[in-house]
Design a protein that fits this description.
The structure holds two protein chains of two kinds.
Chain A (H helix, E strand, L loop, with lengths): L1 H19 L29 E4 L1 H4 L7 H8 L3 E4 L6 E4 L8 E5 L2 E2 L20 E6 L13 E6 L7 E11 L3 E11 L3 E12 L4 E3 L5 E4 L5 E5 L2 E3 L5 E13 L4 E15 L13 E19 L3 E21 L2 E3 L2 E3 L4 E24 L3 E23 L2 E23 L4 E12 L2 E2 L3 E11 L4 E12 L3 H5 L11 E14 L5 E22 L5 E25 L2 E11 L2 E3 L21 E11 L2 E10 L2 E2 L11 E2 L2 E13 L3 E10 L7 E3 L2 E2 L4 E10 L8
Parallel strand pairs in A: 4-7
Antiparallel strand pairs in A: 1-6, 2-3, 4-5, 6-7, 8-9, 8-41, 9-10, 10-15, 11-14, 12-13, 15-16, 16-17, 17-18, 18-21, 19-20, 21-22, 22-23, 23-24, 24-25, 24-26, 26-27, 27-28, 28-29, 29-30, 30-31, 30-32, 31-33, 33-34, 34-37, 35-36, 37-38, 38-41, 39-40
Chain B lengths: L1 H11 L21 E5 L9 E6 L4 E3 L2 H6 L7 E7 L2 E6 L4 E6 L5 E6 L4 E8 L2 E6 L4 E6 L4 E7 L13 E4 L2 E5 L6 E6 L4 E7 L4 E6 L5 E5 L14 E6 L4 E7 L6 E6 L5 E6 L2 E6 L17 E6 L6 E5 L6 E7 L5 E9 L1 E6 L1
Antiparallel strand pairs in B: 1-2, 1-27, 2-3, 4-5, 5-6, 6-7, 8-9, 9-10, 10-11, 12-13, 13-14, 14-15, 16-17, 17-18, 18-19, 20-21, 21-22, 23-24, 24-25, 25-26
Classes of the chains: A mainly beta, B mainly beta.
C-alpha cells in the first residue's frame, strides 16, 4: 500500500512540476481538443466512436434523469425496474458493470456493485454528456468492456447574476422543483443547483400476472378476474444539490471546486405477483452521497494540464421489513415487533486523485498521459444473527486501492490519415492487469470530415467488484478479472454543415470477446455466489445520424436517430450436456434498439417528439420459449410542447409533456410494471435582474 | 425518407402482443404423478409447476399458468398434497395456493404469511407453515383458508431465524431450524407448545423419518464467514421421543450437502453431496465413500418415487434456464430425462 501511494505521489509530483515549467503564453487560450492541426477534426477524436449529447437534450425538462436521456437519445440499452427505480445501462451487449461512468473525470460507479443507477442522476445537473463506445473508452478509463459514459459540469458562461426556477407538476402526484443560481465574472464562476422530486408514484396497471377470486358462501371460486392494481410501495423523494465554484487566474489557470450531494429515499415497488399486504411491508432504499472534486487546469495554445482530487462518501440503507402480527380466525392482534427480511447498511469512502497532460508536438503529434488513483473503504453490515456469544451482523469491511496509468500518442501522418495508440496499466489491490493497448486509426476519404473511415482495436480488463469478492455470504475472493479484446470499424459523414440543410452520421461494426464473465448463481446452501463462468461474443452494428433543416432564422427542425443491432452470445463451456445456453443471446440484452428525437423550434415555441424502441429480451440464458421466457419488445413515445414568454422583467417558460403517448402496456423487467400514459407540466421563471448579456 | 424507412424498419422488430389470458381446458393429472416445483429466479416471478407421468413419461410444463391463466409467482418453494388438493407455497409472493389436482385449477389461497417455506398437515383442519427470516410458525385451517394462530420459536431472532422442513409424527411436529440455526424443535400439536429441542449440526436443512420412527437431519455446516460458525456438514439420527442424538455421520468440511430423502419402505436414505447422489441403508455404520450416481450434471434437488424407488435428480444448470430432471432406477440406471422449469427445487408425489 505504501509503495502504491509513493508511486502515485511521485507521478503526481512529476506531472505537476512539468506543468509549472510549461509555456506561459496563456492569453491565446485555445483548447487542445479543438486544435485543428491539419484538417478540421480534433486529433483527440482520431479513430474514436463517440456520441455527444446536445445540451438541449440534457436540459429538456427538470424531471428527466440521465436514464431517460439515454433511452431516447442513444441506442444503448437502459434497463429500468420501474419509474424512479434502479436503471442501469449497458453497451454493446455487455453488463451494466461493464459501463464505466465518469463525472468530471472521476469514476462514480459503485465500488461495491460495479454499476451506476442512472435514475439517480438528474440530467439538469449535467452540462456535457457523451458516450465512448467500446474500445474508445480505453483512452479515458479502464474496465469499460462495453464503453464509458462521460458526464461533466461546466462553469457558467454568463456574466452577472442568473436565476432560474422551474416547478413541475405531473401525474401520480409528482412534484419537481429546480432552482439554479449562478454568478459569473471575468474570474469567478459560481453556480448552485438544487432539485427536489417526490411522488407516491401510485400509477395503476392491469395486473395480468394475478387473478382475484370471487367466492360463494361455501368458499368456492365462482369467478376470477385480472385486477387493476396500483404500483404499490413505489414512493420516492430525491434531493440533489450541486455547488460549483471556479476561478480563472490572470495566468490562465482554472481552479474549480464541485460538490454534488444526493439524498434519496425510495421505496422499491412490489412485483406483480406479490400478495403481501402493502401496509405491513416496507421495502425501502435510502442513500446519501456526497461527491466532491477539486481541480486545477491550465490550457495553453499547445498543451493542457490538469490535476484533480476528489472524495465520494456514500451511506446507503436497504430495509425489507414486515410488521408481524398475530391473526387468529381473522382477528388481528397488533403490537408485535417487526420482522426483518433484509437489513443492509453500507458506508463507502472513496478517495480519488488524478493528474494528466496533453501536449501538441510539431502540429502532427499529440501526446497525453494520465495517472489516476482511487482508494475505497467499504463497510457493509447486514442482518443480525444470534450466536453463542451474543449477536453478530453479517457483512464485510474491506479496502482496496486502484492505480491506473495511461499514455496516448496520436499522429496525424498525412492530411488525411491519423493514428493513435494508448497504453494503459492498472493495479487493483495487489493485482496488475496485463498491459492494455488500444490502437486507433482514421482516414479522411472526403476532405473536411465529409467522409471519414475509422477503426480501433483494444484489449480490456475488468476487475471484480468488492461485493463479487467479499459479500457475505457468497463473495468469492478467488475470482479472476473479466478480460477481452474488441475492435470496431466505421464511417462517419458530414454534409452541408452551416447550411440550411445539413446531415451528419456514423455507422460502425463492432466485435468483442470477453472471457471469464462473472455471474452470480445459487449455491446449495441457499445463497448466491459469483464465478467466472462465461465467454461472451458480442458483435453488431451501431448507427447514428442527425438531420437539421433551418429554412428561416426562426424555424429549425432537427431529427436525431440511432440504431443498434447487438447479438451478444454466450460461447462459454457448457455447464453440462444439458446446458442449452451456449450460442444463445444473453438474457436482458435486446438484439435491436433504436431511438429517434425530433425537435421543431418556431420562434418561442418548441415541439419535441421522442421515440425509443427495444426488441424482445430473453429472460432465460437458453432463450427458451416459455411463458415467462421472453419480454415483448416495446416502443415508447413522448411528446412535449413548450413556449417561452419574454417579459420586461423576466423570461417565463411553460412546457407540457406527455409520456408514453400511446399508453403502451409494457414491462422492461419481468414482473415490474411500468406506467401508462402520464402528463407533466412545467412552469419556469428566469428574472432579468442583474443579468448582463452573454459573453 | 431514409429516416422514415429506418423508423419503420425498427418498428418491425417490436414483437406483437401475446395473449397470456385464456386458461386451457382442465388438465388430466395421472393417478400417479410427479409434481416438480420450479422456484424460478428470486424477484422475477417466473416460478412454475411441472407435471410428469412416470408411466408415459409425458411432461406438462408451466401447468399452473397454463390451466389458471395467471402466474404461480415469485420463488415457489414446496408443494404438499392433502386430500387430493395440492398446496403450493410461493415464498416471495407470500402466498399458498390450493389446487384441485383433478383440474389443476385454483381452489383457494392463503395470504398474510410472510416468506412461507413448507406446509405440514396434522389433520384436515390444521396445518403448520414454516417461514424464512421469521421466528414464527404459522398455523392455518386448510378448510377455511384462514390463519388460526402461530407459534413463536424460543431463542430465535425474528430477523434471521428460519424454520424449514417439518415432520409430523404421533402428535408431535418436528421442525428444522435451518438458516442461522442449529436445532430441531419438537412441538406438541395439541397445545402448540414447544416441548423439546435438540441441538444438531450447523444449519439443519432437511429431515426424514425412517421405519424405526427415527428422524434423520442433514446439516449443511454453514459457510466461511457465517457468524454462527462453519463446520463439516453432518447427518444426524435423532430419537424423537427423547430428543437425543443417537448417531452422527460427519462429511468433509467444504462439502455441499443438500436434500435428504427416503424410500417408501423408509429403510434407505438418499442425499446430494457436491452435486452427486449418495445412498445408505439406515443401518449402515458409516457413510458411503462412492456416489450412487455422479457426472450427469450437478444435482440440485432430489426425490424418490414412493412406488418403485426410482430416483429423480434435478440439475438447475446455470439457474437461468429450464432445469433438467434425470430419472434413475433404484440401481442407478438412467431411465429418462426431461426439462422442467427454472431451478427445479422441490417435488411432490400424487
Amino acid at each position: 500500500m505504501k509503495r502504491i501511494l509513493h508511486c502515485t505521489t511521485t507521478a503526481l509530483a512529476l506531472i505537476l512540476s512539468m506543468a509549472a515549467t510549461a509555456q506561459d503564453t496563456l492569453d491565446r487560450e485555445v483548447a487542445v481538443d479543438r486544435v485543428e492541426v491539419v484538417g478540421r477534426r480534433p486529433m483527440k477524436e482520431i479513430g474514436v466512436q463517440r456520441t455527444a449529447f446536445d445540451s438541449v437534450v440534457l436540459k429538456e425538462h427538470i424531471a428527466l434523469s440521465m436514464a431517460d436521456v439515454l433511452t431516447y437519445n442513444s441506442s444503448i440499452y437502459v434497463k429500468s425496474y420501474g419509474r424512479a427505480t434502479l436503471s442501469t445501462v449497458a453497451f454493446r451487449g455487455t453488463s451494466p458493470s461493464h459501463t464505466q461512468v465518469l463525472w468530471n473525470g472521476m469514476r462514480i460507479n459503485s465500488p461495491m456493485l460495479g454499476m451506476t443507477d442512472f435514475s439517480m442522476i438528474p440530467s439538469h445537473f449535467v452540462d456535457e454528456a457523451s458516450l465512448l463506445h467500446g474500445t474508445s473508452s480505453v483512452s479515458e478509463t479502464g474496465g469499460g468492456l462495453g464503453g464509458a459514459v462521460k458526464l461533466a459540469t461546466r462553469p457558467t458562461d454568463r456574466e452577472g447574476f442568473h436565476l432560474n426556477y422551474v416547478q413541475g407538476i405531473g401525474s401520480f402526484q409528482t412534484f419537481d422543483e429546480y432552482l439554479h443560481l449562478a454568478y459569473g465574472s471575468e474570474r469567478w464562476q459560481l453556480s448552485t443547483r438544487l432539485s427536489y422530486a417526490s411522488s407516491p408514484n401510485e400509477y395503476t396497471y392491469l395486473n395480468r400476472d394475478k387473478k382475484e377470486n370471487i367466492y360463494d358462501e361455501n368458499h368456492n371460486i365462482i369467478a376470477q378476474y385480472h385486477p387493476t392494481e396500483r404500483n404499490r410501495n413505489g414512493a420516492y423523494k430525491d434531493f440533489h444539490a450541486l455547488q460549483e465554484a471556479s476561478y480563472r487566474t490572470r495566468g490562465g489557470d482554472r481552479l474549480s471546486l464541485t460538490a454534488w450531494y444526493t439524498g434519496s429515499d425510495r421505496e422499491l415497488p412490489m412485483t406483480t405477483t406479490s400478495y403481501a399486504e402493502e401496509e405491513r411491508m416496507e421495502n425501502r432504499q435510502r442513500e446519501e452521497t456526497l461527491r466532491a472534486l477539486m481541480g486545477w487546469e491550465r490550457i495553453t495554445s499547445a498543451s493542457k494540464w490538469h490535476a484533480k482530487a476528489g472524495y465520494i462518501h456514500t451511506w446507503s440503507a436497504y430495509d425489507r421489513r414486515v410488521q408481524l402480527h398475530e391473526e387468529t380466525n381473522g382477528k388481528v392482534e397488533e403490537g408485535l415487533p417487526d420482522g426483518t427480511l433484509e437489513h443492509t447498511r453500507n458506508r463507502i469512502h472513496s478517495l480519488f486523485g488524478q493528474a494528466g497532460m496533453e501536449q501538441v508536438i510539431s502540429n502532427r503529434w499529440l501526446i497525453s498521459a494520465e495517472v489516476t488513483a482511487y482508494n475505497h473503504w467499504v463497510r457493509s453490515r447486514g442482518k443480525e444473527v444470534i450466536t453463542e456469544n451474543g449477536s453478530e451482523r453479517l457483512g464485510y469491511e474491506e479496502q482496496c486501492a486502484e492505480v491506473t496509468a495511461s499514455t496516448t500518442l496520436r499522429w496525424r501522418a498525412t492530411d488525411w490519415l491519423g493514428t493513435g495508440i494508448t497504453l494503459r496499466e492498472e493495479l487493483y489491490d495487489r493485482a496488475f492487469s496485463p498491459l492494455i493497448p488500444a490502437l486507433f486509426i482514421d482516414g479522411e476519404v472526403v476532405r473536411n470530415g465529409g467522409l471519414v473511415v475509422k477503426g480501433s482495436l483494444s484489449r480490456n480488463h475488468h476487475f471484480p467488484t468488492l461485493n463479487d469478492r467479499y459479500f457475505q455470504p457468497g463473495g468469492n475472493p478467488d475470482l479472476r478479472p473479466e478480460q477481452g479484446w474488441s475492435y470496431d470499424l466505421g464511417i462517419a459523414f458530414r454534409l452541408g454543415e452551416r447550411k440550411r440543410l445539413s446531415a451528419k452520421g456514423s455507422l460502425s461494426w463492432f466485435e468483442s470477446r470477453i472471457d471469464d464473465w462473472i455471474m452470480w448463481y445459487p449455491k446449495a446452501m441457499g445463497y448466491y455466489s459469483p464465478a467466472n463462468v462465461k465467454r461472451v461474443h458480442s458483435y453488431g452494428i451501431e448507427a447514428e445520424s442527425t438531420f437539421a433543416y433551418r429554412p428561416t432564422n426562426d424555424f429549425t427542425m432537427e431529427l436525431h436517430a440511432t440504431y443498434a443491432w447487438t447479438p451478444s452470445l454466450n460461447e462459454g463451456e457448457p455447464f453440462s450436456s444439458a446446458d442449452r445456453s451456449v450460442g444463445k443471446q444473453l438474457p436482458y440484452v435486446p438484439e435491436h434498439s433504436a431511438s429517434a428525437a425530433l425537435h421543431l423550434d418556431y420562434r418561442a415555441w418548441e415541439l419535441a417528439y421522442k421515440w425509443s424502441m427495444y426488441s424482445e429480451r430473453y429472460t432465460l440464458s437458453s432463450n427458451g420459449a416459455t411463458i415467462t421466457g421472453t419480454l415483448e419488445g416495446y416502443a415508447l413515445s413522448n411528446l412535449s410542447l413548450s413556449r417561452t414568454i419574454a417579459l420586461r422583467w423576466a423570461d417565463l417558460s411553460i412546457k407540457g409533456a406527455v409520456n408514453n403517448l400511446f399508453d403502451k402496456e409494457y414491462q422492461a423487467v419481468l414482473s415490474r410494471p411500468m406506467p401508462g400514459i402520464n402528463y407533466e407540466i412545467f412552469i419556469g421563471i428566469t428574472p432579468r435582474w442583474g443579468k448582463k448579456s452573454s459573453k | 425518407m431514409i429516416y422514415a424507412a429506418l423508423l419503420a424498419a425498427c418498428t418491425l422488430f417490436v414483437g406483437c402482443e401475446k395473449d397470456s389470458d385464456g386458461p386451457k381446458e382442465p388438465a388430466l393429472v395421472p393417478d400417479h404423478a410427479l409434481f416438480v416445483v420450479n422456484a424460478g429466479n428470486w424477484g422475477s416471478s417466473n416460478a412454475s409447476l411441472t407435471i410428469y407421468d412416470p408411466a408415459t413419461q409425458a411432461v406438462q410444463n408451466e401447468a399452473f399458468t397454463t390451466y389458471n391463466g395467471y402466474k404461480l409467482g415469485d420463488t415457489a418453494q414446496s408443494m404438499t398434497i392433502h386430500d387430493n388438493t395440492g398446496w403450493v407455497v410461493v415464498n416471495n409472493s407470500h402466498i399458498i395456493f390450493a389446487i384441485d389436482l383433478k383440474t389443476m385449477k385454483e381452489k383457494g389461497r392463503i395470504t398474510g404469511i410472510h416468506s412461507p417455506r413448507y406446509l405440514c398437515f396434522v389433520s384436515d383442519t390444521k396445518a403448520y407453515v414454516s417461514q424464512m427470516y421469521s421466528n414464527k410458525i404459522t398455523i392455518i385451517n386448510p378448510k377455511t383458508y384462514q390463519i388460526t394462530g402461530s407459534i413463536i420459536c424460543p431463542n430465535m431472532a425474528a430477523d434471521s431465524g428460519s424454520t424449514e422442513e417439518m415432520i409430523y409424527e404421533d402428535g408431535y411436529l418436528y421442525v428444522a431450524c435451518w438458516s442461522y440455526g442449529k436445532r430441531i424443535l419438537k412441538i406438541d400439536t395439541r397445545t402448540d407448545a414447544v416441548v423439546g429441542e435438540v441441538e444438531v449440526g450447523i444449519q439443519p436443512c432437511a429431515l426424514v423419518k425412517d421405519k424405526n420412527d427415527k428422524i434423520w437431519a442433514l446439516c449443511d455446516g454453514g459457510y466461511e464467514g457465517n457468524p454462527l460458525g462453519y463446520d463439516a456438514p453432518t447427518l444426524v439420527r435423532i430419537n424423537p421421543r427423547t430428543m437425543s442424538i443417537e448417531a452422527t455421520f460427519t462429511f468433509t468440511k467444504g462439502d455441499y450437502l443438500s436434500k435428504i430423502r427416503i424410500n417408501d419402505e423408509e429403510n434407505r436414505i438418499y442425499w446430494l453431496n457436491n452435486g452427486s447422489l449418495y445412498r445408505m441403508s439406515i443401518n449402515d455404520p458409516a457413510l458411503p465413500t462412492t456416489p450412487l450416481v455422479a457426472g450427469e450434471g450437478f444435482f440440485y434437488s432430489l426425490t424418490i418415487d414412493p412406488k418403485n424407488e426410482d430416483i429423480y435428480c434435478s440439475d438447475a444448470i446455470d439457474y437461468q434456464q429450464q432445469g433438467i430432471l434425470y430419472r434413475y432406477s433404484a440401481t442407478g440406471t438412467l431411465i429418462d430425462s426431461f426439462y422442467s422449469g427454472i431451478i427445479p427445487t422441490e417435488f411432490c408425489w400424487k
